[in-house]
Amino acid sequence: MLREERKKELKKQIFFKSIELFKEYGYDNVTVEKITSSCGIAKGTFFNYFPKKEHVLLYLGNSQNDYLQEIAQKHKDVKIKQQLLLIFKELLSVYLENSDLLKLTLSETIRSALNDESRNIYLFKETVTTLIEEAKTNKTINTRFDSKTIASVLVGIYFNTLIIWSISNDESVDIISIFERQYEVVWEGVEQQLN
């Protein structure tokens, strides 16, 4: 287990160092050699973790799915509306903590959404669908809408929020508030359809 933890930690270090280099020199100007030199690792070690330089940027999406599972577990005893809102807010907060570095990552992730990243989006939607299904089973939500449709809309507003935030030149744009307003509109629609 200790070996696996060290491997995860090294992968994270490579990721963060690469993002710093991309920010400083520009993505196209950073080579794998520059990354490995800055990390103090061999080129082969880099390729053990990332098949290509582009995969460094996709790492965030992959690691976010693991984080999603942790967050969902942490909020499992909260009513579904609040649970989903807390999950999305925590995921968005990751971007706020490292906004400059992660805007680059986000743009690359969106650009490649139809390729490698589509699996991450699929897993994200499946996790949200499962949470909604569980809420239906536990009778904490009563809706005629299909769980996959609700999950797809929620994940859609999550990515819409990230896009709005990433292209904004206004540093005061509050990513959480943008998401919360859209989330409330969607949730009101889910609840009102019962009346």
TrEMBL record:
Endpoints of the signal sequence: none
Q: What is the top-level taxon of the source organism?
A: Bacteria
UniProt-listed PROSITE patterns: HTH_TETR_1, HTH_TETR_2
The answer to whether UniProt assigns keyword Transcription to this entry is no
State the name under which the record lists this protein. DNA-binding transcriptional regulator, AcrR family
SUPFAM superfamilies in the record: Homeodomain-like, Tetracyclin repressor-like, C-terminal domain
Q: Which residues bind DNA?
A: 31-50
Ranges where the HTH tetR-type domain occurs: 8-68
Task: Recall the taxonomic lineage recorded for the source organism.
Answer: Bacteria, Bacillati, Bacillota, Bacilli, Bacillales
Any idea which UniProt keywords this protein has? DNA-binding, Repressor
Query: Does DNA-binding count among this protein's keywords?
Result: yes
